[in-house]
Write a structure and sequence with these properties.
The structure holds 2 protein chains of 2 kinds.
Chain A lengths: L6 E9 L6 E6 L5 E6 L4 E7 L9 E8 L7 E6 L5 E6 L4 E6 L15 E7 L6 E6 L5 E6 L4 E7 L3 E8 L6 E6 L6 E5 L4 E6 L5 E7 L6 E6 L5 E6 L4 E8 L2 E8 L8 E5 L7 E8 L5 E7 L9 E8 L8 E6 L8 E6 L4 E8 L1
Antiparallel strand pairs in A: 1-28, 2-3, 3-4, 4-5, 6-7, 7-8, 8-9, 10-11, 11-12, 12-13, 14-15, 15-16, 16-17, 18-19, 19-20, 20-21, 22-23, 23-24, 24-25, 26-27, 27-28
Chain B lengths: L51 H8 L22 E4 L2 E6 L9 H15 L5 E6 L7 H8 L2 H7 L3 H17 L3
Parallel strand pairs in B: 2-3
Antiparallel strand pairs in B: 1-2
Helix pairs in contact in B: 2-3, 2-5
Classes of the chains: A mainly beta, B alpha+beta.
Protein name (chain B): FAM96B protein
InterPro entries (chain B): FSCA_dom_sf, MIP18, MIP18-like
Keywords (chain B): Chromosome partition
């Protein structure tokens, strides 16, 4: 029950169109574009515009569908920081790299988006690719798979990619990869219940410098805090863990959050609309179809414990369906807006409204 | 699949009497209950809660992957091993031997059968009976990992094997 929580979730768009389960949503970091991917093997793109005098909410419209050509579900999508390139990771084990055919970037008067074409297909994983992610500089791409490996690719000019390392640290499927928001630190989460952190040794190769144990089942999702001093993880053990950076290469478990009845498939950490001591807003969702939004605060001394306050909670957000993905809009003027993707094939956009 | 037989000589049990009540979800084999084929359940009081026997009827005739018997005949599944909660179903099954390499396939066939027969609102958990399998945790984890299940169902070879196990349940509706 939504008892006495300070905020509510307002549904601002209900975007139907996928024929099967929608696995992930991703906001373009530069342009007003939202992408979703699905077991129907397609990626759908939506543009949105800010409220104007004609309309008082953000309006979304479908502007394109990429059939992708992947032979199995598209499990994961990620935008490059430039906003010009999209990566797709599929159960067919390949990674597609997509760019607009029309490089001149001149959208016609109707705002129609030109076609997207596959400029590169990255092969190498032996089984299903489960997650893809670009580093903050856009020079590196990480991918992971049920084959237990994490691959790091260097992004070169002309859609050329070079594999910089194959990390075989996990003993089971790797479910998620996530890059630090400013440094070249990669985190991966696995079916083996652990999280691993990697950096590049300038004289050697990429290597795992830390393993974070503690979850009692599959770790499904990872989210760095906006400034990168914390990492959050969500798990099949029905908990969310927050890890604090206490030293350059040392991360320590500092807070556990509960509030879901089934696997927590996705977690996203946004800047939120808050005060200076706030670390931002964390949203979580999963197999119970519930969305929770937390405000995370550091104690003034920064030595004390973290404080988490539940701002809003909604059950049945995609009717009876599981929710597979949640993601905050990265635009500062829409910091209270996030999107979700569910087993109903629907993408929904929500706004946190506080009294 | 390997040629290895995990239990060469299983005990075959007599079938229990079939429940006379018919599950309303048994109308078709389609993945979703088609609204047009279903009696209209507009009045809330018309909705009967689903019970153990109905779930058992849906899975009892699934074929064992390595024997010419049903899961019921081998006592792999039983009505007593089914728990029903609010929009939640827990099915426990008992592999015939603790090293049964077919356990994940059996569990997957139960999951697919229920997925195809039940309305989407039901969340289903499938587990082996505690103590009945040497890799109990691994089997349970795999059967309840939605991503692994989704990927398995895009594997044509595996789906072919699954459909063989599920063949008998097709006839079941007309019995």
């Amino acid at each position: 029950m939504d008892v006495d929580l300070p905020c509510k979730l307002e549904l601002i768009a209900d975007l139907q169109g996928h024929d099967e389960r929608a696995w992930q949503v991703a906001w373009n970091p530069i342009k007003p574009l939202l992408a979703s991917c699905s077991a129907d093997k397609s990626v759908r793109l939506y543009s949105y515009r800010a409220p104007d005098h004609g309309c008082d909410t953000v309006a979304f419209s479908h502007v394109g569908t990429i059939p992708t050509g992947h032979t199995k579900a598209v499990r994961s999508i990620a935008w490059a920081p430039s906003g010009n390139t999209l990566a797709t990771g599929s159960f067919d084990s390949n990674i597609g790299i997509w760019e607009r055919e029309d490089a001149s970037d001149s959208e016609d008067a109707r705002g129609k988006v030109a076609d997207w074409e596959c400029v590169t297909l990255l092969e190498g994983h032996e089984t299903e690719c489960k997650s893809v992610g670009y580093s903050s500089s856009g020079t590196l791409l990480a991918t992971c798979s049920r084959d237990k490996t994490v691959w790091i690719w260097e992004v070169k000019p002309d859609a050329d990619f070079e594999c910089m390392g194959v990390l075989m640290e996990h003993s089971q499927d790797v479910k998620c990869v996530a890059w630090h928001p400013s440094e070249e630190i990669l985190a991966s989460a696995s079916y083996d219940d652990t999280i691993k952190l990697y950096i590049d040794d300038p004289s050697e190769d990429w290597y795992c410098f830390s393993t974070l144990p503690g979850h009692k089942s599959t770790v499904w999702s990872l989210a760095w805090s906006p400034r990168g001093s914390y990492l959050a993880s969500s798990s099949d053990d029905l908990t969310i863990r927050i890890w604090k950076r206490v030293d350059e290469h040392t991360w320590k478990f500092v807070l556990e959050l509960k509030g879901h009845e089934r696997s927590i498939y996705s977690i996203s950490w946004g800047a939120g609309r808050a005060t200076s001591e706030s670390l931002g807003w964390l949203t979580t969702t999963g197999g119970d179809g519930k969305i929770n939004v937390w405000e995370i605060n550091e104690s003034p001394s920064s030595k004390g414990p973290l404080a988490a306050k539940l701002l809003a909670s909604t059950s049945g957000a995609h009717d009876v369906n599981d929710i597979n993905s949640v993601s905050w809009c990265p635009r500062p003027d829409h910091a209270d807006m996030f999107a979700t993707a569910g087993d109903d094939g629907v993408v929904k956009v929500w706004r946190v409204v506080c009294q | 699949m390997t040629g290895e037989i995990f239990n060469a000589n299983p005990t075959v049990y007599a079938l229990s009497k079939r429940s006379t009540r018919k599950s309303k979800f048994e109308a078709g084999r389609s993945l979703w209950v088609d609204e047009h084929d279903q009696p209209k359940l507009t009045d809330e009081s018309d909705i009967e809660p689903i019970d153990q026997d109905e779930i058992f009827d849906l899975i009892r005739s699934i074929a064992d992957p390595e024997h010419p018997n049903s899961l019921e005949e081998l006592r792999v599944v039983s009505a007593e091993q089914i728990e029903i909660g609010h929009n939640h179903i827990l099915v426990e099954f008992t592999p015939t031997v603790p090293h049964c390499g077919m356990s994940t396939l059996i569990g997957l066939s139960i999951r697919v059968r229920l997925m195809r027969s039940l309305p989407q609102r039901f969340k289903v958990d499938i587990r082996v009976k505690p103590g009945s399998h040497q890799s109990e945790l691994a089997v349970n984890k795999q059967l309840n990992d939605k991503e692994r299940v989704a990927a398995a169902l895009e594997n044509a070879t595996l789906v072919g094997t699954l459909e063989k196990c599920l063949e008998p349940v097709g006839e079941h509706g007309s019995l």
